[in-house]
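ok trying again, last paste got cut off:
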Amino acid sequence: MGSQVIETESGERLVVIPEREYEALLDRIDNAASEAAYDRIKEKLAAGEEEMLPAAMVYRLLDGENPVSVWREHRGLALADLAAKAGLDPDGLARVEAGEEPSIGTTKAIADALGGGLDDLYA
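nice, full thing came through this time. structure:
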């Protein structure tokens, strides 16, 4: 059908297009944005800046499981191993995994030992 140009009293030019063409244009814009986001993620993965997580792990986190426990198990570490790597007492780490609120220093030590960031543990 094509487009129609309308000029307002102030001289602004407006283009009127059929709705189906407008919807198709929005779809193309959305697809381009999605492809760009996907490309950025691929670049970060290739550079080692991002990590793919198994769906089961994501579901555990979404279900409210303790993120320290979930990440520790994902990394294949026993509680004592993570405690040693983070420079913490195993009993203290067990209390954190049971729900005790750690200090920011403890959280940072755990995050570093797990190879992640603070936002991975408490976003």
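cool. Strands lie at 4-7, 13-16. The first strand starts at residue 4 and ends at 7.
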